Every structure is written in structure tokens, then in C-alpha cells.
């Protein structure tokens, strides 16, 4: 049971081997740094990634000899970042991702599957300690919490983790590179909040280390000439030594980190403004802010996972403003970027059901059901644990699965009843029922120009695709297929609405002709009635005029005094021959006729009146 003492020759051999191994490691580390510097220099000129790949190979050889060497780990992370293998960086440093720590600490920590998903790649850290990884004094808080748990029970794994962490713990100046490198990787993966926290923490730690180191510097070291002459030279001679000694990254990296942090904050502010406008009931304002995020023209990089979430948010704003076609188009783009994005599938299924396309909605719901089944079977959501799923949690999947099954049954019953083909094309095109032809033509023209299949894949060129399974060609093909499906639906809706509008216009013209004929007939009848009335009025006026003239003539005849009765002998004359009647002469007035009648015939006034 005793320890066998080694001879002096064996110890000397071991020391020689260690010295030789250290020399080999230092040589590999130097070559890897030179290769990374060359890769950084070629990055601006559009060179290949051969230098970064060579540096990664050298670092891998170093890690085989010394797995816990901090400089080798830093170079490996930076080489992966230069090769744009952001997922590998996230898997390597996943213990430092804040959202992964919170989700792992809060979601189903009692089950073995969740604890396995929360464990790191090396299996050293537990889920409960990830919430305080970003604080400088995290070992104090974790140790206090561990002491309270130690009083309850003895946890051997926790003791082992603490011993290993204490042995391998390094200073903040040596570990601040983790936050900077992981912050850049999180930005490219779409974890914007995590990127902000990590980049700010890295800058804070670097600034604090630089402040502590600059206490022993002379005043001449802070002059612009010395700082511009000495710092880049030191960074060129030994970049990692400079960063470890002063705590500050090189000037170029510090500038790029500052610019990246400002860009991330701008994107987060615009998205927050869009969400606030949508919550306040201002969908047009929300669409405007989402357009600023998605259609940025300043050359900023936009990760595809962050763009996917923004597309789903803009689809919700389009739906609230009564534009379902634009909302469906945004959901199609989001699903082209990430076919397993649960919020996009939910939103498109709801939109298709709202316009009456129940078979298409059932297709999306079946896809969503498959994702739910996989999540229940695997105990985690699709994709890596650090990838965001739009607020979807694993603990919500069981209830959502039950609701989804009931909804699918109801929709299938509606399809069996014959209600599956009644698509509301008016709602799809965004025009009211009974609209004019000009409104239909205008709405169809705008939607056709925006949602043309040839232009549907252009949005992916402004995004950064970092998923190995989704290249640009696959995204373009799926976006073009979904856009073609929506375009055909719009064309069918336009034909349906235009036929209805033409029928209404023909019916309106027929009604107008019938009304015109009825109006002409009524006008004719009214004209005849008016003519008869006018003729009767004229006859009545003529008779009244004649009667008035007769009365005037009667009033114009003078009354002669009644003659006295005198007996005058009357001589009877011989009868004269009467001439034949002459044609009627115009009527004379009573004054002209009275002397003639009085002299010849009249003997009494009664006879005169009878003659008149």
C-alpha cells in the first residue's frame, strides 16, 4: 500500500519531457497566433480561411497535450469565430450564455433530460451555477448557496465541481476574452440580449483590468504618441501577452466590439419600439419600425434568427392592420429561414384559417403537431438549447399539444361538412364587399408587385445565414415555392372578385335600363296628362272669355225710356218681297244695330232682347 519511490533518473526524464512538451506547446501557440493574425489581415481583402483552419489545427494539437490551457482555449475560440463557426463557439462556451443559464435553471431541473441538456460540454458545471457566471464575485454567491445546501445533504458532485473549478479558475484578466468572443458569436446567432450583456461585461472587465494595470504606469505612457507607437507594437509582438498583461484587447478588436455593441443596441431599440406600438394598438407604426429593422440600408449585419422573429412580429402587425396577404408572405419568409420555428407556423395557420383556407391551415397544424411530438419525446424543443423559439417553453408544450389536437379535429369536421373551400378572397386582398372595380384592380396590382415570386427570395441576400443545414439556395427555393402558392391564391381571388364585380355591374346596367324605360313611360304619360289638362284649361279659359264678352256686350246695351202709348194710325204697307238669305255678316254691336231694329221692326224692348 506504500508509495514506490522513484529514482532520480526517472524524475529527471519527466522534467526533460515536460520542458520539451512546453517548448512544443509554445511553438504551436506562436504559430497559431501568427496564422490568426494573417487570417485577420486577409479578412478585409476577402481572402480564404486556410490560415484560420491551420491555426485551429495547431490549437487542437496543443489541447490534446494540455486540455486546460487558457491560451489554447482562447485561440481555439477565436479560430472558430474567424471560420464563422458560431455554433461551435456557443457550444464551447455555453455555460456563459445568460439565457441558456436562466432557461436551464428554471425549466424542469428535476428531470434527467433537462439536467443533461443544461450540462456543459466538459460536464463540469451544473445548471444552478450559471445564473451568476457574469458577476465578478460569482464564486462567493455560489459558495454561499452551496453552504446552505451542504447543511441539508452531502453532495459529492457539487464538492467535485468546486474543487475542479477552484483548481482551474483564472483571473478576470485572463477570462474576459470569453465574454468578448462569445458576445460576437451570440450576435451572429441572433441572441441579441445575450450579446449585449456579454459584450458589456467583457468591456467592463477589460476596462477594470486596464485601470488596475495602469496604476504603475508613468504619465508619459498615456501620451498620444506613446500610446499609438507602443500599444500596436506590443500587440503585434505578443497579442495574447498584451491582453493578459494589460487586460485590454487590441485597438482594432476594441473598436469592432464597440461598433458591434452600438449596432446591437440600435436593433433592440427599434424592435422594442415596434412591439410597444403593436401593444398600443398602432399596427401601422409597428410595421414602420419593423421595416427599419428588416430593410436596413446602412450595411449592418442582420442575423437570420433575429430576422425570423422580426418577420413574425411584422406579420402580427400586418394582421392587425387588415392585410392578411402581407402577413402570410412574412410567415412564408420566416419559415423559409427556419422551417421549425414554432411561432411562424402558429401565425400562418391562424392566418390561413381566418381567410377560410382550411386545408392549408391543416397542413401547417400537422407540421406543428410533429414538432410538438418530437419535443415531448426528446424532452426539449427542436434545435440547440440556446436557440430562441419566440418565447415558447418546454413546459408549455403538453397543454399546447392537447389544444392542437382538438383544433385539428374541429377543422377536419368542417372540411368533411364541405366548408373547406369557402375562401374569403375579399379579406385576402383587403377590399370590402361591394367595392368598385378600381379598388379591386389597385389592391391586386399592389399585392402582385410586392409578392411576385421572382422577388420573393431577394430578402435573404440582406441576411446572414449561419446555420449549416440552411444555405442560401435552400432558403431561396423554399421562399419561391411558398410565394408561388400565395401568388396563385391571389390570382384566383382576383378572378373570383372580378367576376362578382362584373356581374354586379351588368345587373346594375340592366336595372338602369329598366329604370330608364320606366321613367320614359312615366314621362310620356305625364306629358299626355299635362297636354289634356292644358287643353281643358284652354277650353275653359275660352268659354270663360266668351261668357265674359257676352256679359260685357249685355252691359254695354243702353236702356231706352219706355215710350208712352199713343194711338197713331198705322198705315199698312204692301208686303215686300223677301230676298234670299245672305251669308252671315259679322256681329255688330248693340249700338250700331239698335236704330235699325227700332225703326223697322221693334215695337217693344222684349222683342229687341229676343232678337239679340
From TrEMBL:
Region (Disordered): 104-123, 219-251, 537-563
Biased composition (Polar residues): 220-230
Residues covered by the J domain: 424-495
Name of this protein: J domain-containing protein
InterPro entries assigned to the protein according to its UniProt record, in alphabetical order: DnaJ_domain (IPR001623), J_dom_sf (IPR036869), TPR-like_helical_dom_sf (IPR011990), TPR_rpt (IPR019734)
Superkingdom of source: Eukaryota
Lineage: Eukaryota, Viridiplantae, Streptophyta, Embryophyta, Tracheophyta
Species for this entry: Aegilops tauschii subsp. strangulata
Gene Ontology CC terms: endoplasmic reticulum
Amino acid at each position: 500500500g506504500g508509495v514506490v519511490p522513484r529514482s532520480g533518473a526517472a524524475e529527471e526524464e519527466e522534467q526533460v519531457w515536460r520542458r520539451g512538451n512546453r517548448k512544443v506547446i509554445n511553438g504551436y501557440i506562436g504559430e497559431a497566433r501568427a496564422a490568426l493574425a494573417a487570417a485577420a489581415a486577409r479578412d478585409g481583402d476577402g481572402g480564404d480561411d486556410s490560415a484560420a483552419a491551420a491555426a485551429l489545427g495547431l490549437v487542437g494539437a496543443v489541447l490534446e497535450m494540455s486540455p486546460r490551457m487558457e491560451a489554447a482555449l482562447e485561440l481555439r475560440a477565436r479560430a472558430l469565430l474567424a471560420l464563422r463557426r458560431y455554433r461551435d463557439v456557443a457550444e464551447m462556451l455555453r455555460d456563459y450564455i445568460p439565457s441558456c443559464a436562466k432557461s436551464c435553471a428554471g425549466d424542469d431541473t428535476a428531470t434527467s433530460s433537462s439536467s443533461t441538456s443544461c450540462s456543459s460540454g466538459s460536464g463540469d458545471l451544473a445548471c444552478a451555477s450559471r445564473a451568476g457566471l457574469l458577476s465578478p464575485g460569482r464564486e462567493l454567491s455560489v459558495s454561499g448557496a452551496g453552504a446552505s445546501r451542504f447543511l441539508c445533504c452531502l453532495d459529492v458532485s457539487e464538492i467535485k465541481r468546486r474543487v475542479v473549478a477552484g483548481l482551474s479558475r483564472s483571473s478576470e484578466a485572463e477570462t474576459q476574452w470569453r465574454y468578448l468572443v462569445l458576445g460576437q458569436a451570440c450576435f451572429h446567432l441572433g441572441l441579441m440580449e445575450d450579446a449585449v450583456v456579454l459584450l458589456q461585461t467583457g468591456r467592463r472587465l477589460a476596462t477594470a483590468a486596464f485601470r488596475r494595470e495602469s496604476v504603475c504606469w508613468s504619465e508619459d505612457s498615456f501620451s498620444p504618441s506613446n500610446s499609438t507607437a507602443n500599444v500596436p507594437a506590443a500587440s503585434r509582438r505578443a497579442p495574447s501577452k498584451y491582453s493578459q498583461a494589460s487586460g485590454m484587447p487590441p485597438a482594432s478588436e476594441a473598436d469592432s466590439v464597440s461598433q458591434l455593441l452600438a449596432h446591437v443596441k440600435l436593433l433592440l431599440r427599434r424592435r422594442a419600439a415596434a412591439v410597444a406600438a403593436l401593444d398600443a394598438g398602432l399596427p401601422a407604426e409597428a410595421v414602420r419600425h419593423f421595416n427599419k429593422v428588416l430593410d436596413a440600408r446602412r450595411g449592418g449585419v442582420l442575423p437570420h434568427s433575429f430576422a425570423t422573429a422580426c418577420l413574425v412580429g411584422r406579420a402580427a402587425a400586418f394582421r392587425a392592420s387588415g392585410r392578411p396577404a402581407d402577413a402570410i408572405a412574412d410567415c412564408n419568409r420566416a419559415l423559409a429561414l427556419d422551417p421549425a420555428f414554432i411561432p411562424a407556423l402558429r401565425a400562418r395557420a391562424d392566418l390561413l384559417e381566418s381567410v377560410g383556407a382550411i386545408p392549408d391551415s391543416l397542413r401547417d397544424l400537422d407540421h406543428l403537431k410533429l414538432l410538438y411530438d418530437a419535443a415531448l419525446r426528446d424532452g426539449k424543443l427542436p434545435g440547440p438549447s440556446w436557440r430562441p423559439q419566440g418565447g415558447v417553453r418546454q413546459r408549455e408544450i403538453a397543454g399546447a399539444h392537447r389544444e392542437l389536437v382538438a383544433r385539428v379535429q374541429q377543422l377536419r369536421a368542417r372540411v368533411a361538412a364541405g366548408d373547406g373551400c369557402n375562401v374569403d378572397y375579399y379579406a385576402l386582398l383587403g377590399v370590402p364587399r361591394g367595392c368598385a372595380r378600381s379598388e379591386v384592380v389597385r389592391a391586386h396590382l399592389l399585392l402582385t408587385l410586392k409578392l411576385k415570386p421572382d422577388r420573393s427570395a431577394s430578402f435573404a441576400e440582406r441576411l446572414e445565414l449561419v446555420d449549416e443545414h440552411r444555405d442560401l439556395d435552400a432558403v431561396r427555393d423554399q421562399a419561391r415555392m411558398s410565394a408561388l402558392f400565395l401568388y396563385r391564391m391571389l390570382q384566383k381571388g382576383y378572378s373570383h372578385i372580378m367576376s362578382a364585380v362584373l356581374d354586379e355591374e351588368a345587373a346594375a346596367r340592366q336595372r338602369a335600363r329598366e329604370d330608364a324605360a320606366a321613367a320614359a313611360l312615366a314621362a310620356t304619360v305625364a306629358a299626355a296628362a299635362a297636354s289634356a289638362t292644358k287643353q281643358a284649361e284652354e277650353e275653359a279659359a275660352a268659354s270663360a272669355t266668351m261668357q265674359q264678352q257676352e256679359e260685357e256686350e249685355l252691359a254695354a246695351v243702353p236702356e231706352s225710356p219706355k215710350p208712352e202709348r199713343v194711338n197713331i194710325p198705322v198705315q199698312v204697307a204692301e208686303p215686300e218681297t223677301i230676298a234670299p238669305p245672305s251669308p252671315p255678316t259679322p256681329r255688330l254691336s248693340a249700338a250700331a244695330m239698335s236704330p235699325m231694329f227700332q225703326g223697322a221692326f221693334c215695337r217693344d224692348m222684349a222683342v229687341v232682347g229676343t232678337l239679340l
